[in-house]
Amino acid sequence: xxxxxxxxxxxxxxxxxxxxxxxxxxxxxxxxxxxxxxxxxxxxxxxxxxxxxxxxxxxxxxxxxxxxxxxxxxxxxxxxxxxxxxxxxxxxxxxxxxxxxxxxxxxxxxxxxxxxxxxxxxxxxxxxxxxxxxxxxxxxxxxxxxxxxxxxxxxxxxxxxxxxxxxxxxxxxxxxxxxxxxxxxxxxxxxxxxxxxxxxxxxxxxxxxxxxxxxxxxxxxxxxxxxxxxxxxxxxxxxxxxxxxxxxxxxxxxxxxxxxxxxxxxxxxxxxxxxxxxxxxxxxxxxxxxxxxxxxxxxxxxxxxxxxxxxxxxxxxxxxxxxxxxxxxxxxxxxxxxxxxxxxxxxxxxxxxxxxxxxxxxxxxxxxxxxxxxxxxxxxxxxxxxxxxxxxxxxxxxxxxxxxxxxxxxxxxxxxxxxxxxxxxxxxxxxxxxxxxxxxxxxxxxxxxxxxxxxxxxxxxxxxxxxxxxxxxxxxxxxxxxxxxxxxxxxxxxxxxxxxxxxxxxxxxxxxxxxxxxxxxxxxxxxxxxxxxxxxxxxxxxxxxxxxxxxxxxxxxxxxxxxxxxxxxxxxxxxxxxxxxxxxxxxxxxxxxxxxxxxxxxxxxxxxxxxxxxxxxxxxxxxxxxxxxxxxxxxxxxxxxxxxxxxxxxxxxxxxxxxxxxxxxxxxxxxxxxxxxxxxxxxxxxxxxxxxxxxxxxxxxxxxxxxxxxxxxxxxxxxxxxxxxxxxxxxxxxxxxxxxxxxxxxxxxxxxxxxxxxxxxxxxxxxxxxxxxxxxxxxxxxxxxxxxxxxxxxxxxxxxxxxxxxxxxxxxxxxxxxxxxxxxxxxxxxxxxxxxxxxxxxxxxxxxxxxxxxxxxxxxxxxxxxxxxxxxxxxxxxxxxxxxxxxxxxxxxxxxxxxxxxxxxxxxxxxxxxxxxxxxxxxxxxxxxxxxxxxxxxxxxxxxxxxxxxxxxxxxxxxxxxxxxxxxxxxxxxxxxxxxxxxxxxxxxxxxxxxx
Length: 996
Known about the structure:
Blueprint lengths: L13 E2 L9 E2 L1 E4 L8 H11 L3 E2 L12 E7 L4 E6 L2 E6 L2 H13 L14 E5 L2 E5 L5 E5 L17 H4 E2 L2 E2 L10 E2 L1 E5 L5 H16 L3 E3 L11 E7 L5 E6 L2 E6 L1 H13 L24 E8 L3 H15 L6 E7 L3 H14 L3 E7 L3 H15 L7 E7 L12 H4 L4 H9 L6 E6 L6 E6 L5 E7 L6 E2 L6 E2 L4 E7 L2 E8 L2 H20 L14 E10 L3 E3 L6 E3 H25 L8 E8 L6 E8 L8 E8 L8 E6 L2 E6 L22 E7 L5 E7 L7 E2 L1 H7 L2 E5 L9 H15 L1 H6 L1 E5 L4 H10 L35 H9 L3 E9 L27 E7 L6 H18 L3 H18 L10 E2 L2 E7 L9 H4 L6 E10 L3 H19 L9 E5 L3 E6 L6
Parallel strand pairs: 3-5, 5-7, 13-15, 14-16, 16-18, 20-21, 22-23, 30-33, 41-42, 41-43, 43-47, 44-46
Antiparallel strand pairs: 1-2, 4-40, 6-7, 6-8, 8-9, 9-10, 11-12, 15-49, 17-18, 17-35, 19-34, 20-28, 22-24, 24-25, 26-27, 28-29, 30-34, 31-32, 35-36, 36-37, 38-39, 39-42, 44-47, 45-46, 48-49
């Protein structure tokens, strides 16, 4: 014997298969009599679906799958429902009373009905009263609320049949929300076949499952909701599904009509591997490319100019005389050694020194000073390097630029000489003549060695008038008899090309772009892209300190990319008062070839406008012999298209380059296409279900949801493999996490950027390649979120927000794994950056967008919990050891001199920056846009630009620890799910923000 009060509870007509205390299937098969198809059973099925998060369309079939049976027995004496053993029996006098009772059970009945908790064995309908009978025959009577006509506050704006069943579920609001309230009316006309009725009942169940609130009744004279389904059998050979305002009309011959109803309510959206809406998945091919211009460039190069200068010297001087020839040249050591030999041959009596013109202080110490120290008789205990403070007023360099240019010489010296790392230190001084002085001491504080060097610099204009950089440069100085006979700056090959690009190419690019549209340069690019292919001979080597490398062409790559962006910022400010943030793609492809004279080819491509065409399906046509529609009528803009619909469709599969979990059972969703037409998938991962359909918004209403985005900036390589490994780790070792939360993962957010990165790493696999961080046309696609732009990558997060309404968003990012230098922007990172990314400050650290703590204390409590949980997850691991290592490096080289530029904000031993964030309904950031229901919006940063092998494994581990720490503290049982039972609406909602 069962309590009817528990009808809608787990263990009643719904069940929890996966033991997470959330209903995930129906638990009853419904046995309807032939020729008895009550309207009220539509309401009942809607409530049945509402009480679960997933279901299958099989509960009108006799089966052993479900524990209970619902059956209907005609009885002239009473209309009642009774639960005995495994059977819920409904007796009825006529269909009208049967529907009335079923509507009451659907829209009014719940576990606490009447404020009582008595056991209810039987329920009877007596006119306008409901009579409840307990196990002892005691009766309670309630007057039914009148079913007055009422108009729901829910507003519908349906333009297309595919708005009814979209990838987000059933009739979602246009703006993301954790609520999906539905107020619909079903109007089935007499004469429908049994098969049609069963499909309608299933339809109501699926709608109920997809909703967080339902307005009742669905049927009957008092159902007057703002959206309706009308089912009309007729004698037409075909059947149609027609959108008429906020009403969907199903009409046609019986068997064709069954096909139409079945397809419309059963078929999954094409983005989930189904067929529904496939005819709207129209051509996404970008328009043909148009070149704006193409130029080639070559130059004799700095080495040839050096030889010309020395030839002129030889012509006017006796080459057999004693001379001191001091050369700085931007070449690798092998080329520099050849130059020294060639010069020595020309001037046999001269003392010739050939030094690097890139990071010259570092190479001076490592190539000249350290070998001398290795030959000393006494043990070196301390090395002090005094660096000249940079004080050029119009220069972009930081005061500590000469310390920066030595990095990481302290570790190299420590390793070479066995000196304690702390005893290799720097001083930044104003009143010194030389660029560098080095003083070396014994353990007794005796001075063992001392030397100094002057570093030549050039003056290069920046993209902003009145600002300059002072990069180290090539140079030749010749002394004869203590008289300087030559003192000549020679432009490096890099500078020669950069000045050509700055003075010739950028003005041409500016002159070719169309700036008439107010969105141009902000929400869409001014040009498609500019490709720069350059080849020259430069220093390129990896050094044995972490992932450090010395690469002057990588530095040029960064300068070309970021300085081009800054050029358009400046031009925008000058011409329109606002700097352009999205000028176009900047693609530097640079190749190091020792001994090669510098050459380059530059090609610029025009931006070709492409509109987002709204496709609106108005009609589908069905026959009795095909499961899918045979024809569709849809609008594309103003054009009306009548099109045959293919029964077999080809939907893109997950691309080979996208990482997939091996153990975790995920549900893929093809959420969007990138600008270049690449599919972008999302993995939905939640406690396993066995049913055919599930509701994302209902799952989120029942337990917290976390969204993790990876590969947003495509050159940040470790988050994409890390997140799928984390899901497998959860499946194998942390099943409690997935019982507590739903995970939604973007495994590759930026496929076009990834494709560009893959092109760039072919020649230079370990460069940072910041030029590949944005999308195909150089757009930071988060800037166009919520705008439904042609850049599909920008629509992904808004689509997920709409489908899942997540509580926590984690955007997994990366920082350079090695030094980031830009000689033509002040050596440091771009001037518009307000904090330093010059060297890593941690192996992994966090950033959070923080709401006002006084106004939003619960959000900040969640944030504090997250930061503490992450710190504890990282604690006592090798990742913490690396964090300690990097923060000490960051302090030594930057923070102790310029704490504002090199900030450190700690949560215990973990860096976590908190960015104050204002509420803004138009914001592109989740917590700022949706503060009422988003609990936290955080970013991870891992030193992964660009790493491989063991270093990649370390970075992946750092991401996994960060993400696990951010979610594993969540206790589902602490998150309150509330049900409300108003006079005309039943709803479920979860308290937000998350509870600690």
